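Whether sequence alone determines local backbone shape is best considered at the level of individual chains. In the encoding step, the backbone of a single protein was reduced to a row of integers, each denoting a local shape. For completeness, the protein is quoted in full, as a sequence line and a line of structure tokens.
***
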Amino acid sequence: YNLQSLLSNRDEINDKIRIIIEEETSTWGVAVPAVEIKDVKLPQNMQRAMAAEAEAERERRAKVVSSQGEAEAAEQLARAADTISDSPGALQLRYLHTLVKISAEKNSTILFPLPMEIMRGLQA
């Protein structure tokens, strides 16, 4: 038996062991009513291997959850980009909202980027 089957099929294994012991002891007049595996001791190297495997599984699950979050965020950003592109004033409002947030943080300097189209118009 491997460790997983030992732990998951304890009752079945207990019955098999009880039958084997009872067959051997019945000639002596000894009855074996029950056998129970109560404690399984694992070697240290096996405990470390199992801990490493469990850690790797936790990391795998965390990466899956993280990638699902990234995918959902990308979908939300794509929808937001579509919404902003449908309304010409939406991008300007978003830009002004960002400036309001920056100014609320009591920064002494605010960089105000201008679209290149405006700069070209000023050069002519």
Q: What stands out?
A: The mean pLDDT is 85. The first helix runs from residue 3 to 8.
